[in-house]
Amino acid sequence: MEAIARSVPVGVVGAGTMGAGIAQVAAAAGHEVRVYDAADGAAAAAVEAIYQRLARAVDKGRLLAEEAEDAATRLHAVAALEDLAGCGLVIEAVVEDLEVKRALFAGLEAVCGPDAVLATNTSSLSVDAIAGELAQAGRVAGLHFFNPAPVLPLVEVVSGAHTDAAVADLLVATAAAWGKTPVRAASTPGFIVNRVARPFYGEAFRLLESGRVDAATVDALLCESGGFRMGAFELADLIGHDVNLAVSRSVWEAFGRDPRFTPSVLQERLVADGRLGRKSGGGIYAADAPRPEPATADPTEANLGHWLGSGDGDGPLTRAGAAGRPSGTVHWRIDSDEVSLRPTDGRTAAQHTGGGPRTVVLVDLALDYASATRVGIAAPEHAPKEHVEAAVGFLQGLGYVVTVLPDLPGLVVARTVATLAATAADAVDSGVATADDVDTAMRLGTSYPRGPYEWGAALGWNWVTGVLDALAAAEDAGRYRVSRQLRERAETDDGWREDDEVADRDDLARRASEAMWAADTASRALGMTIEQVSPGTAVVSMRVRPDMVNGHGVCHGGLVFALADSAFAVAGNTHNRRTVAQGADITFVAPAREGDRLLAVAHEKFRGGRSGICDVTVYRDDDRAGRATIALFRGRSREIPGTLVPDEEET
Ligand code: NAD
Q: Which part of the chain is the 3-hydroxybutyryl-CoA dehydrogenase reduced Rossmann-fold domain (predicted)?
């Protein structure tokens, strides 16, 4: 398809930030451009501002004086919408208000010839909603430029349900002729970039809200390990938290308040307090003070003798018995006698370590371990101090700056990349755009170091779903749920596989809990089901039946206790050591009612000698509204002699 001919005039309606930028692009590409704005003098002021920008481009040697003059002579401020008659393409960039845009398009339909293409630069409104009532809705499409339009190359060409294919093709060709990189998107909330980018901010805010990691550390890991050009907080401070939150809220609302997109409470508070970012003197960071230092381990000489690497492809180099830097993949491990260093797969270091012979220290994801300057690591909370120091010393010896993180599921970079990849896959699966266009849009629209779809495929979709599953079990089943298509993609993916030792321990945990469950008739009689187990973790569900409620329709507290206690028992026995309860406390937070599906999520907090501590949170599980906490339970356990299933290590 050919682009719109240069001889055809282009109209721009709305002469604010975007309209002025788009007018400049169209004039520079050789079109006569007519700029109209409803506010008196706004179009003339925008044209004047473009002249000045063109003059600055000449001063900086980026444009020839004749080119700037030609572009300037092609720009006209016009006083009425009727002056756009004769334009072959009109691009609307007025306020983001559906009723204003609808009225404007009705006006444009009356003024412009039947062949004129009408485009909207909306960031968040539906093209169908804007065009729906027009006689010729087929000629309306989205042409979504990014700010600043003269500089940023990406343009999303957005097709609504009524948009003619030829109109979308024409806009793709025209954007390309104007020096832009067009991608095609269906008119769905957030199109590509504003939808797929949500987890970049969402995960960073969740980490900050956890109170266990500070903003500067999150940003440092995203940049120095993940290869992102800017950290999530630095970028949100630059964009403005009001703007960033408005996009998050609009995508969340448009998806029926899907918990995947739930906006951050902390960001809501920043906006309410007027801490909007750089433009208001500060947001997450103060605008006029030096950036706080990220958490960084002190240099240490500690090392535990020989470290041996293994992995496939160009995994950890093994030179004369000494392991070097791992490669960019997640298929490697480096072991000393007491410590095993592994890339995170979403589960905690405590879960990996389980009852195994070595302390597992997890390494956060890096874009490329060979060139990363910083790595984040996490060890089980009660790991011997000398094991953590040895891991730090070894990694410092490889030239990394090391951040020791708390033992969080998915750490920082891995959870960010896994959720971005899943959101990208979801956009592809729901027909928003092709995988290539999603990746192009994210690299150009957000400067990501790698397209998130291609990144997910390279890491392995089963690695991506593994991280999401671990986050779902530990934090929020609704937010991190894996779509059916993504699960299928992971099942046919032979990219990443668990290493044998981890797979064996998972298998043992599953078999031990099944053996225990088979003998637990009481839990089964209450309709409880084991949803998930891994070493030290269990998720058990129960539906509140009519015979479980009291006279007020509220579930008996004793039955909520029984559910938490069962999850505690399953988690405690996952190491295949017979483990019994020594005591437990419960705090009830909210009532559960008939029909509610309850989930008890148990995590072992401590295991040492023969005793253990396990925390259980009972949630009311509602896939859409997220989870509400019903009760908090802490159990103390003790191992007694014997195993639940024959233990191969012992036979
Ligand atoms: P802006 O507030 O800078 O400019 C809007 C202009 O539209 C104003 O000059 C206003 O006088 C004019 N206007 C309002 N109603 C009008 C009408 N009925 N007829 C003619 N002119 C009218 O806004 P902006 O930031 O340039 O955003 C414009 C559009 O572009 C919005 O739809 C926005 O979502 C979208 N967008 C903005 C950005 C961004 O970063 N600012 C990026 C991409 C897309």
A: 341-409
